[in-house]
């Protein structure tokens, strides 16, 4: 379905709003809408209108959902990797950083803190130079948590304290920073300050009704009370955390709370109470592929059975533990083998590359020599092509005040501007100007432009055809006879005008390209036939148009290269509407300033992107 620019702009806003609403659910996940449905629609709409930023943000949110809601780590990683690739492609560093930090959270939650740290620090690079905001605090919390889990408390505290911001007190990530600091202080046995920080974090999280955060703060406070040997208080906090996590199906977090409660009972030697929690944790550790926690389960279960005299069950649990350890060792072994193979492969590749470079150097020298010969030939062709372009003295004589902005994509061009003067009657001369876009650009386009100008000369000089539309009819027939016998659609789009500046008259024919007249600050797009000069679906005669010009009029002929150039902030086409608005804005300026303005705007829009086509714009001031 085709959409207007206004509809597309509104849809982009709708996509952005949906993505931000769901992104913010990381901090406060209670909502009155279905986040999965919201993001599915945002992703679908982004694809439909080729909105790359919306697509990447939707993939980021889908990645979070796949992990938090569906516990599908491989799918989550796939979505996040795709999101990062798009953010890098569109050079959006902030959201690239957010995607890295999200990957870091998930890696850390699945027991891979080393990989998580690399991702977290990559994301943090962007935020070092930023003012403190919610995402900055989130970044500090993520990296601090990873350092905590890596048993590096000093580094963890440094990032947690970086994340504290007095103007963001009621911010869920700021609250999590307090809970993170609480953990560090507890590890140093600064329990009073640790409890104060933990309670402050819990208060802020309860205020925002952040269920994930509340459950984590409760669990962390329970761990502090456990270290203080206040077991009843510890069980009270962690049991409340477990209840919240089960109600919200936070499977990874449920596993942690089950192991914490079981650990307290184990520490108290109340093995009959610890065992059910370990057994409940076992299938969760398996389903979430958390081998480290699964090993803890089997080790403790084996110890409990041994202590309670159930030796058969103890042996069975130890066997499961050995199996888990063997699998992990095998995985580590395979990883090391893979690293060794990669190192050996790299050494072989380096040697091959060294040998290849010797060969390539010789080949490069040959190619450079041939390339110079080809380039010299094309430059010579450019000098030849310039001879067919309308000479400036002739344009100055018959057009008066004018400019030409001509910028080929390559050295030679498929676009051309051509003129001819014919003596029709005594003391009467006809001046013709053509602005055309031949099929192709570069060398093939240049060959077509030579052929096209030859047929224009033939029509007017040899056949004495006076009217522009009849000239186009003749040239079209010659092109079909000579190169389009088998249906090739070679030829040109363009405008052929017979201009009499003194008499203020314009007779013209237009094939696909539209002349533009600006009068009294208002733009008029003059009529044009929707068919090329060459083989096409329509075989109708071209129309002849006559325009009476007025003093002060500005007349413009152009090809499609300017409007079709990609660039700007979103890599989109410049488009005809924007070109016409630019011409209207500069129409009263001196013509050379107009040409310079067109060049400046074109170069700025194109930026670092490649020029996609030849560009030709001619302006005439009456």
Summarize this structure as a short list of keywords or feature phrases.
five-stranded antiparallel β-sheet, 622 residues, elongated, alpha+beta, 13 strands, six-stranded antiparallel β-sheet
Short description:
With about 625 residues, the chain is an alpha+beta fold. It has helices spanning about 5-25, 35-50, 50-70, 75-90, 95-110, 115-125, 135-150, 155-165, 170-185, 190-205, 210-225, 230-245, 250-265, 270-285, 290-305, 310-385, 390-400, 440-460, 470-485, 575-585, 590-605; strands at about 400-405, 415-425, 430-440, 490-500, 505-510, 515-520, 520-525, 535, 545-550, 555-560, 565, 570-575, 615-620. The protein is elongated.
């Amino acid at each position: 379905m085709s959409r207007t620019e206004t509809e597309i702009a509104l849809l982009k806003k709708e996509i952005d709003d949906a993505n931000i609403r769901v992104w913010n659910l990381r901090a406060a996940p209670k909502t009155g809408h279905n986040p999965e449905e919201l993001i599915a629609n945002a992703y679908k709409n982004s694809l439909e209108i080729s909105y790359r930023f919306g697509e990447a943000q939707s993939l980021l949110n889908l990645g979070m959902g796949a992990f938090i809601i569906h516990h599908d780590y491989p799918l989550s990683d796939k979505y996040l990797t795709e999101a990062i690739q798009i953010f890098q492609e569109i050079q959006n560093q902030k959201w690239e950083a957010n995607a890295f930090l999200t990957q870091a959270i998930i890696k850390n939650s699945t027991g891979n803190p080393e990989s998580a740290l690399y991702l977290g620090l990559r994301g943090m690079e962007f935020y070092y130079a930023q003012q403190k905001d919610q995402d900055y605090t989130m970044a500090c919390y993520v990296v601090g948590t990873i350092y905590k889990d890596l048993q590096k408390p000093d580094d963890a505290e440094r990032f947690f304290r970086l994340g504290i911001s007095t103007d963001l007190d009621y911010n869920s990530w700021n609250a999590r920073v307090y809970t993170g600091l609480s953990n560090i202080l507890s590890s140093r046995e600064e329990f009073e300050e640790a409890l104060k920080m933990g309670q402050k974090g819990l208060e802020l999280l309860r205020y925002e009704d952040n269920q994930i955060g509340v459950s984590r703060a409760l669990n962390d406070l329970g761990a502090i009370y456990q270290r203080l040997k206040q077991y009843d208080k510890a069980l009270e906090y962690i049991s409340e955390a477990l209840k919240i996590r089960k109600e919200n199906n936070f499977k990874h977090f449920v596993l942690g709370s089950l192991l914490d409660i079981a650990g307290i009972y184990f520490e108290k030697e109340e093995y009959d109470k610890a065992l059910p929690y370990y057994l409940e944790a076992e299938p969760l550790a398996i389903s979430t592929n958390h081998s480290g926690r699964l090993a803890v389960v089997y080790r403790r279960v084996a110890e409990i059975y041994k202590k309670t005299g159930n030796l058969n069950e103890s042996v069975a649990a130890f066997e499961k533990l050995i199996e888990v350890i063997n699998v992990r060792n095998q995985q580590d072994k395979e990883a090391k083998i893979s690293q060794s193979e990669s190192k050996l492969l790299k050494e072989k590749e380096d040697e091959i590359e060294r040998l290849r470079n010797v060969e390539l150097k010789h080949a490069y020298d040959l190619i450079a020599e041939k390339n110079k010969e080809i380039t010299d030939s094309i430059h010579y062709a450019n000098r030849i092509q310039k001879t067919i372009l309308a000479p400036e003295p002739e344009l100055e004589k018959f057009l008066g005040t004018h400019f030409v902005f001509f910028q080929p994509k390559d050295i030679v061009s498929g676009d051309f501007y051509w003129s001819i003067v014919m003596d029709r009657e005594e003391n009467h001369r006809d001046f013709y100007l053509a602005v055309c876009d031949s099929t192709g650009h570069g060398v093939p386009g240049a060959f077509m432009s030579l052929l096209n100008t030859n047929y224009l000369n033939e029509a007017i000089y040899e056949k004495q055809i006076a009217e522009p539309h009849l000239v186009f009819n003749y040239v079209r027939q010659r092109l079909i006879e000579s190169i389009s016998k088998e249906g090739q659609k070679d030829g040109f789009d363009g405008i052929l005008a017979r201009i009499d500046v003194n008499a203020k008259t314009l007779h013209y024919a237009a094939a696909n390209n539209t002349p533009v007249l600006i009068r009294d600050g208002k733009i008029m797009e003059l009529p044009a036939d929707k068919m090329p000069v060459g083989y096409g679906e329509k075989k109708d005669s071209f129309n002849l148009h006559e325009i009476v010009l007025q003093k002060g009029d500005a007349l413009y002929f152009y090809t499609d290269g300017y409007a079709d150039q990609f660039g700007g902030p979103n890599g989109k086409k410049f488009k005809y509407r924007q070109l016409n608005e630019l011409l209207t804005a500069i129409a009263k300026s001196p013509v050379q300033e107009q040409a310079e303005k067109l060049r400046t705007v074109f170069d700025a829009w194109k930026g670092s992107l490649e020029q996609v086509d030849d560009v030709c714009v001619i302006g005439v001031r009456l």
